[in-house]
Design goal:
The chain is of the alpha/beta class. The chain folds into 2 domains: 148 residues, Alpha-Beta Complex (Aspartate Aminotransferase, domain 1); 231 residues, 3-Layer(aba) Sandwich (Aspartate Aminotransferase, domain 2). The chain contains 16 helices and 13 strands. Strands 2-8-7-6-5-3-4 form a 7-stranded mixed beta sheet, with helices on both faces. Strands 9-10-13-12 form a 4-stranded antiparallel beta sheet. It has a two-stranded parallel sheet with strand order 1-11. α3 runs antiparallel to α12 and α13 packs parallel to α15. The two termini are 34 Å apart. The protein binds pyridoxal-5'-phosphate. The site of pyridoxal-5'-phosphate (PLP) has 13 residues, from α6 and α7.
Amino acid sequence: MSAIAASARGMTPADLDAADPLAFARERFAIPEGVIYLDGNSLGALPRATAARLADVIAAEWGEDLITSWNKHDWIGAPARVGAKIAPLIGAAADEVIVADSVSVNLFKLLAGALQLRPGRRVILSEPSSFPTDLYMAQGLASMGAAELRLASDIPAALAAGRDGRQGKDVAVVLLSHVHYKSAAVHDMAAITAAAHAAGALMLWDLSHSVGALPLDLAGAGADMAVGCGYKYLNGGPGAPAFAYLARRHQAAFASPLSGWMGHAAPFAFNDAYAPAPGIARLLCGTPPILSLAALEVGVDLIAELGVDRLAAKSRALSDLFLAAVADIPGLVLASPTGVRGSHLAFRHPQAYAICQALIARGVIGDFRDPDILRFGFAPAYLRFADVAAAAAMLAEIVATGAWDRPEFHARQAVT
Ligand SMILES: Cc1ncc(COP(=O)(O)O)c(C=O)c1O
């Protein structure tokens, strides 16, 4: 039942919390007293189990067992092991996902590999206003002469029309975010993947705002490649490594441009010549960050235990409640779809930055995205309906009283 339907039936936020099958999960996270955290779409909260796990990896594994931990505690297997745990969250097989590097670096590897898999084609097709790093990585490849970046608002139309009447035949790979980082608009993964394939192109999805928030089915959609963030809904911690997905059917022919030793078929043979590992491991480059991987594994285990279907349903109910509660705030304009969307909401307001800072000063943490977007994430694992109602009331009060209009709330910080 959505929160809007629930409130129509007279259910209060407290009633909704009492009926919430995921209410128990909040205790699994360390949420500071007095804080309403609406930014789990940017940095997921800290699972309580993470500190103990990291302490153990540091003291017992690194401290006691030193380098023998690569074998003894299977540090060497961590990228594939955690990748295999992410796989069911995104509709992939265990041997199609690996944890490595950042989303940005994985995009570089996959885009370059996609260009090689489609010889004679050099276009990376994406949309304007994608998350900047996605476009920047493509621009980097273009600046090396390896690709051409083309942007189109209507991707299926661009694929169908192609340029110069070539029916999209120059497109090697389509790169899109499944959930848009600002608006939370969702692309139809199956339909766009099919359109890419019909044009002979590969499909690469950025799942950074989707993984752990929405049910995903890469295999069902026939997707070729994907990347996603470890530090948002997977709660892996600041700078957590990202993951890369490469469909099994492409793995043997895939050539990583970052041919580091960890992606070698036999890293400890110390050969002069590079030979890629047989499967998904060829997407590895350098030595994996074991402490960060250990933290990410805790977050992934927790999200897998809670179940993405339940999480997505609760997130939707939370954001519906917020939407209804802020509907009459003057000057606040919804910049997200009312229909299918990701787990956050975006609103335009001319004073978005100062309002965001005023909310943070009162313990309601959302974020601001240039030029005028207030963004609120509804990470369902640790948010209560009562939190969302209180945050909406706080927002209404700040706008009504002009409490945002203080010099300290206008001062731009390095990270918004
Ligand atoms: C859609 C999207 N892609 C990529 C990134 C950046 O990923 P990374 O910092 O791991 O390179 C983000 C970060 O917020 C994002 O929202």
